Amino acid sequence: MSKLYTKKLNSISPWFNDDIHSARKLRRQLERKWRQKGKLEVCRQEYCKQRGVVATLIRQAKVSYYSTEITNSSGDQKKLFRIVNNLLHKPKDPVLPSAVSDRSLACRFSQYFVEKIEQIRKTFTPSPDSQLYGETSSPSTLCTFQAASEEEIKKIVMKSASKSCELDSVPTTLIKQCIDTFVPYITDIVNASFSSGHFPTKSKDCLRSSPFEKGWFRQEYLEKLPACR
Question: 227: pLDDT confidence band, cut at 50, 70 and 90?
Fold first, then answer.
């Protein structure tokens, strides 16, 4: 009985194209030719030349792809940070400080933010004319909202993250793919909510996961966390 081997298939890079594929194929052919011909110098030069061609094509493809991605992500800081993290190969594993228990760790986080807010408040200079408490009146009133246009709704949807959960009736990726079909209905729902002042209770439900699972809390903050008292 023959032995079974498991091979892991790597995903194709988004910048990979047909030109690179053809150039790499030719490079492999020239390498085999060089080895089969007893490593002749002329064959080695052909192989090295083609190897440089492949490297140039890959570099150009990467520059073109990431330049386009950065240009299209202008104004979207979250997407830009995601691109930079991908380029720098930053780990996505969450980093949490060691603690005796989850309760102790929660106390440290709570105490850290309490002290942080107190420090920020101390930097403010109190003004004798300012009224921190009491009722204030304003001659301006807000009675109605300006109706949203389909272009505004489309822009917001396309900029949103392509994430979905069990509560979504339609996946976000599908909505983006068929945005021209969905956008009139989404716009009508938004404007109906604005005009009636009502937001469906069912649409307020959500499934929330811990932010620490995404590793958003940076290590320098974790090191400053005080011990739970």
Answer: very low
**pLDDT digits 0-9 by tens, 9-19:** 566 888 999 99
Report the distance separating Cα 106 and Cα 149, nearest Å. 44
DSSP state of 223: T
Are 97 and 105 a contacting pair, CB within 8 Å? yes
225 by Cβ neighbours in 10 Å (0-12 / 13-18 / 19+) ranks as buried
The Cα 132–Cα 121 span in angstroms is 13
CA distance 227 to 140: 48
Between CA 121 and CA 91 the distance in angstroms is: 35
